[in-house]
Amino acid sequence: MNAKINFREKEKQILDQILGPGRYDARIRPSGINGTGDAPTLVRVNMFLRSISKIDDYKMEYSVQLTFREQWLDERLKFNNLGGRLKYLTLTEANRVWMPDLFFSNEKEGHFHNIIMPNVYIRIFPNGNVLYSIRISLTLSCPMNLKLYPLDKQTCSLRMASYGWTTDDLVFLWKEGDPVQVVKNLHLPRFTLEKFLTDYCNSKTNTGEYSCLKVDLLFKREFSYYLIQIYIPCCMLVIVSWVSFWLDQGAVPARVSLGVTTLLTMATQSSGINASLPPVSYTKAIDVWTGVCLTFVFGALLEFALVNYASRSDMHRENLKKTRREMEAAASMDAASDLLDTDSNATFAMKPLMRAGVDSKMRQCEIHITSKPKNCCRLWMSKFPTRSKRIDVISRITFPLVFALFNLAYWSTYLFRDEDEEK
Q1: Which of 410, 397, 393, 396 is nearest to 234 (CA)?
Q2: Where is the Neurotransmitter-gated ion-channel transmembrane domain (predicted)?
């Protein structure tokens, strides 16, 4: 009767046979295609994105957790599979075999996961194929163009390259068929992962050409958060500043306090928005919005200053007219008394004739003036005798109309833009 085979003992014997002292040198890279020493070693890469925890606009970086895998052929590690019963050998020590010197070129911080045990394994297959898998967390740089913020799309890359081996010795390739996988329930608080693209990014330096791979992750910013937190409150502040146009021009404390309060609130809102963004040399879409809203609020405050000045000017004009009428009344009374005291009949007889001639000319002028058709706007504005009231009435129409035109231009510019302009 055949004795039962102890596969664990066989695994130990095979590992001692292929990795024993003097049999395998981890410092020497595997041979190339078909065992040729001059051809470069081909390493096929694939990964599984487990989570993207944050995308920081201020630091221009993002954090990702992934399972990273590499696969290559090392013919020195071939072994007998015992008739197909031994599918592969598993190692947990990466320093036992040769490893590609891959590094993440745009990485800021990174760490391995060691709870409960190190999250890493190496599988050696009977034909000499080696599969290396490890779970890592990385914080990677992501240069952003914030001209369209917060209506923008950002492309963040993950770049992998060889540090010491040139393309003559080591070449990285994407694994055929879905080299990058993303967890199905990936959730980002302010972004949506629209798509991702794989590509090659070989770099040439004065020490040689190095193989490089990259993944471009295209993120679209979720606009609903900014609509609720920024755009609607700014609109409300601008509309509240227009309330002063409907207040009486004599209510100075109410109109001043309303204008100053809305101006300070709008300035605070604008500074709070910029505090969460890096200082950049160009104008962002949110800067245009907050700047115009701040201008409208400031304009409403200046409008009251103009109304107040016009009101005082109207009062001064009324006082002058009143004084002039009193002086004319006094002069006419003096003239009438002089006429009554005069004894000259010729002079007294000529007065009515002269007055009749003047009255007829005045009537002709009035007929000529009234014959001209009046403008509708002037006719409507004539209902408001004072200049201060007219300024308020014009502002009630002009401010909302100009703000509506600005909204039309703003949203048509930033919402219906071409894809090429976003890059």
Answers
A1: 410
A2: 230-326
Q: Residue 262 corresponds to which tokens in the numbers above?
A: 């809305």
pLDDT number for residue 375: 67
Using a 10 angstrom Cβ sphere, with 0-12 exposed, 13-18 middle and 19 or more buried, the burial of residue 31 is middle
What local confidence, expressed as pLDDT, does residue 405 receive?
96
Structural domains of the chain, count: 2
pTM above 0.85, yes or no: no
Do 273 and 401 belong to one domain? yes
- Does residue 301 fall inside a structural domain? yes
> Which residue stretches of 342-418 are H helix?
345-370, 376-381, 387-415
Bond into 150 cis (ω within 30): yes
Taken in order 403, 409, 412, 414, the sign of the CA dihedral is negative
Query: What pLDDT band is residue 384 in, cutting at 50, 70 and 90?
Result: low
Q: Which domain holds residue 275?
A: 223-315+381-417
Residue bearing tokens 């060691």: 114
Q: Is 390 exposed, middle or buried (0-12, 13-18, 19+ CB in 10 A)?
A: middle
Do 157 and 231 have their domain in common? no
What CATH number corresponds to the domain at position 387?
A: 1.20.58.390
In angstroms, the CA 57 to CA 328 distance is 75
Q: How far apart are CA 335 and CA 189, in angstroms?
A: 89
The number of residues in the chain equals: 423
Q: Tell me if 289 sits within 8 A of 234, measured CB to CB.
A: yes
Q: How far is CA 268 from CA 167, 234, 249, in A?
A: 55, 11, 28
344 inside domain: no
